[in-house]
Write a structure and sequence with these properties.
- The protein is of the alpha/beta class and about 170 residues long.
- The chain is built from 4 helices and 6 strands, in the order αββαββαββα.
- The protein folds into 2 domains: about 35 residues; about 130 residues, Flavodoxin domain (Rossmann fold, 3-Layer(aba) Sandwich), CATH 3.40.50.
- It has a 6-stranded mixed β-sheet, covered by helices on one side.
- Helix 2 links the parallel strand 2 and strand 3.
- It is elongated and about 80 Å long.
- Keywords: Membrane, Transmembrane, Transmembrane helix.
Length: about 170
């Protein structure tokens, strides 16, 4: 009987240790791979008739693509607004000629703000351009014509060019 009690205590201790290790592994993973918040800002005057909004997450990869898009349109008569994806609930696509959404696939799904935005704005999908990054590079939401890939810095120019190509017909003025 004493041997059985001792074995149960050992099994309980092992399960507890594994649970604690998994908890700390999850915390480390979230800290290491989670996206930073983007500090929003505007480029050019909001009174301009052509408007572009870029909703993104803070990462070196997405920051580089955002900068490439800004460099392309900086001198054009286009109002550009940069926001964090967490602010998408406040965005009405009717107010913009084009909407770019860049997000990372997290925990096998898109961020809830992105998912809700896409669901809410289905009637405006022709003006929404989505870039979804994931470890494998192929994940995306169903029924979304997204550009997909891995967050590799050497690929930023290629993704920037794909987004800019999709923006051209939307930003004609």
């Amino acid at each position: 009987m004493c041997l059985i009690m001792s074995l149960k205590k050992k099994i309980t201790a092992i399960i507890l240790i594994i649970g604690v290790l998994l908890f700390f592994l999850a915390l480390w993973y979230k800290h290491e791979y989670s996206m930073n918040k983007v500090q929003g800002y505007d480029l050019n005057a909001p009174s301009l008739s052509t408007k572009l909004i870029i909703a993104t997450q803070g990462s070196e990869f997405k920051d580089k693509i955002t900068n490439d898009i800004l460099e392309k349109y900086r001198s054009d008569s286009i109002f550009i607004k940069i926001i964090d994806v967490s602010m998408l609930q406040k965005i009405n696509p009717k107010d913009y000629n084009a909407v770019v959404v860049m997000h990372t696939w997290e925990n096998w799904k898109p961020p809830i703000e992105v998912k809700e935005f896409i669901k809410r704005t289905r009637d405006h999908k022709e003006k929404i351009i989505v870039l979804t990054t994931s470890g494998e590079g192929s994940y995306k939401m169903d029924d979304v014509d997204a550009i997909t890939g891995e967050s590799k810095l050497e690929s930023t120019t290629s993704y920037s060019n794909k987004i800019i190509e999709r923006l051209k017909p939307l930003l004609k003025h």
